[in-house]
Specification:
Layout lengths: L3 H21 L5 H13 L2 E2 H8 L3 H13 L3 E5 L6 E5 L1 H21 L5 H24 L2
Antiparallel strand pairs: 1-3, 2-3
Helix pairs in contact: 1-5, 2-4, 3-4
InterPro entries: HTH_MarR-typ, MarR/SlyA-like, WH-like_DNA-bd_sf, WH_DNA-bd_sf
Keywords: DNA-binding, Transcription, Transcription regulation
Organism: Neobacillus paridis
């Protein structure tokens, strides 16, 4: 399939732009949202866990976490053994997450409007396979 990457990147950029517009109302960007999303989904988490999940360097997550702490959306907590530093959402963070999640759900519904359920299901099955192929290729080169 020719031009898949170009089509995907154009789509990706359009989605990120729309998400950033929505999130900007709450002092967030998509990269900050990723941290909130992960911690909401997984519960108290380490920066390494978040960095591994998104396949980014830990300093990138550290900067994001610092900004979210400044906005009082996340806070540090001790781990069970006390050696690792973990973060969790604050009450304000949970509230901002809920508001943003509703708006993002609306956007998801808008962009998927008119697409039959079977095509949506196919897409939701294909995208993780593409990601796995990319990740496997990186592992083969190590």
């Amino acid at each position: 399939m020719q031009y898949f990457f170009q089509r995907y990147i154009r789509l990706y950029r359009s989605i990120i732009s729309r998400l950033n517009e929505i999130l900007a109302e709450h002092g967030l960007s998509f990269s900050l949202w990723e941290v909130l999303f992960y911690v909401q989904k997984m519960g108290p988490s380490t920066l390494v866990e978040i960095a591994d999940y998104y396949h980014v360097e830990k300093p990138s997550i550290t900067r994001r976490v610092h900004r979210l702490k400044e906005q009082m959306l996340i806070e540090g907590v001790s781990s069970k053994d006390g050696r690792e530093r973990m973060i969790q959402l604050t009450d304000k963070g949970r509230e901002v997450y809920k508001v943003c999640r509703r708006k993002i759900n609306q956007l998801e519904n808008e962009v998927m409007k008119g697409i039959p359920d079977n095509e949506k299901n196919t897409l939701s099955q294909i995208l993780p396979k593409i990601q796995q192929n990319i990740l496997n290729k990186g592992a083969e080169n190590e």
